[in-house]
Amino acid sequence: MGPIPLCVLVLMTALAVAAAVDNAADDEYTWPQWKVPLVRKRRTVLLSSPDFSAPPQQELSGTCGIECQRRLPAPSLDDVEEFLSYETVYENGTRTFTSVSVQGLNEVVSWSRNTTSPSRQKREVYGTDTRFTISDKQYSTKYPFSTSVKISTGCSGVLVSPKHVLTAAHCIHDGKDYLDGAQKLRVGILKEKSRRGKGGKGRGGRGKGRRRKGEKPQEEAPEQEENNGKGERKGKGKGRKSRSRRSTEVEKPSFRWTRVKKTQVPKGWFKGVSEGLAADYDYAVLELKKAPKVKHMDLGVIPSIKKLPAGRIHFSGFDDDRPGNLVYRFCSVSEESNDLLYQYCDAKPGSSGSGVYIRLKEPGKKKWKRKIIGIFSGHQWVDVTGDGMQQDYNVAVRITPLKYAQICNWVHGDSSECQVA
């Protein structure tokens, strides 16, 4: 075999370099694979029923921030197991406490830790309001917006399985007792309003035929107009205006409310347990009595948001200042600790508990997938330096390998299904 021409060698080298660059770029946009610890039930005991007397919390304070947490000793295995032990409250008001064991903790890769946090002077909405109201049913009832739900205590949440909702713990429990409205907890899932009410045998078939022969054939025109505009036209009079008004009404979504079967809250959220780390455990899972026919969003684990090419997070919730509407926003993360994300996402009360997600490629595939990587906790006053001086932030609790293991165990009831994130 003769010598390879120089031009061919140069071309091959260039192609190899390009392939290496493409692979590196793909890695930046690909979900990392994590081996997570095993969180297993150790013992469950029956507790007395809660009082359900706590008032709703509009604003949290006293959060131990990045610099503050650096001064705290690293939790031991015993501490971690205590923080991840949890209470379960059932629909009938009974309550249990479950202690857990954690296995494989040393195999989890440690998180990078940033050590600076800039102060801010404004609250909740920073400068120009960058939120988007998703009021049209064509969007609000379609994925990913359809995964957002409303909690009857006034918060938001996100579907993480066919019948499990992830939300903020403070939407259910104030650290001492369960909220007044948590005794008969319900979850609202967006649905399309039906102009025909309860009768109906759908949008076609025999039901449609009977209506054509019935007493009000004029109702057929709006129905045909909704079906891609293929219906017959009826001039420019009052009929057209009426059809337009009815069509606009159909566009507005409403809620289908479902009762909660049980609620699970980590012990790390309770007062006096994790001391300055309580905000790290501001999450809870609600199991619904009946699974809605809505697609859910999977959980994901990412070591650093700021190191992603875009570095943005997204979430949708039901902000109080825009009642009845789903509100979407995205923003960059300004700082992150092992367990918290500090950001400028514009938000108002009511959005707490929303699922914070990002979009990356699945390993070995070209398909992009959104996953929940955090829970929006809300506006908080944070002790950044550890000297008691507090600054305000919008904060989200990030999904770590430990939290992934616990939440996955709550959802599946079998920790063996939760070994890889």
From TrEMBL:
Coiled-coil region(s): none
Top-rank taxon, per record: Eukaryota
Record's signal peptide: 1-20
Biased composition (Basic residues): 193-214, 235-245
Location relative to the cell: Secreted
Main location: secreted
Disordered, as annotated region: 189-255
Biological processes annotated in GO: proteolysis
Entry keyword set: Glycoprotein, Secreted, Serine protease homolog, Signal
Boundaries of every Peptidase S1 domain copy: 138-182
GO molecular function, one term: serine-type endopeptidase activity
Gene Ontology cellular component annotations, sorted alphabetically: extracellular region
PANTHER family membership: INACTIVE SERINE PROTEASE 35, SERINE PROTEASE
Family: Belongs to the peptidase S1 family.
Protein name: Inactive serine protease 35
Organism: Sphaeramia orbicularis
Gene transcribed to yield this protein: prss35
